[in-house]
Amino acid sequence: MMIRINLLPVRQVQKREQGRQFIVLMVGMFIIAGAANGYWYVWMDGKREAAQRRLDDTNARIAQLEKVIGEVTNLQKRKKEVEEKLAVLDKLTRQRAGPVKLLDALATAIPKKVWLTSFDEKSGAAVMVGTAESFDDVSEFMRGLNNIVWCPKGMGRVVERQRNGSFRVELLGGDSEILAYPPTDLGFFFSNIELKSTTTEGAVSKTGVKPVKFDMTLTVNLAI
Description:
By secondary structure, the protein is of the alpha+beta class. Helices cover about 50% and strands about 25% of the residues. The chain contains two helices and nine strands.
């Protein structure tokens, strides 16, 4: 005779156990997912706060730099204003001393056989009238006017214009030292020299020629 065993209750118990395990697994997964989401949120929030702090620090540094830049700009503006005022004062000082130097330069440039009868200057434009023993003396006078300069060591006379653009200058009033200077270091007293008219008049000189009366215009530099 065969013995029959009813396995239905056992299967039902196994199914209930599997259902509980599934529920526990799902609940565990939800808990893990929630914890992971919470950790991720906290981590991202920390990164956001750190980024915000860096942004705030950067903005603060930018504001500080803008303040410094503003102060530097103001200093540069004030420096420019002071430089402009000093340039005006320097120009006025030069103009006060200019006529004295100009007369000295004019006296230096005049040859022995040339005499001025009048000299009129207005706003840098001058007219000269004079006499010379010959046309050669007038030419020598014009060359002298062209070559009288003011250099870092005082008044001088250009003796050579070199190919590289510099000038060899003979210093006047000292040991006649000759030095080379670039054009930027020299101030020419006279420019735009033009001989407007010449006439011969009077008695014949010892050299056999009549004196020459001349009329000359030129530009004078009073700012040296």
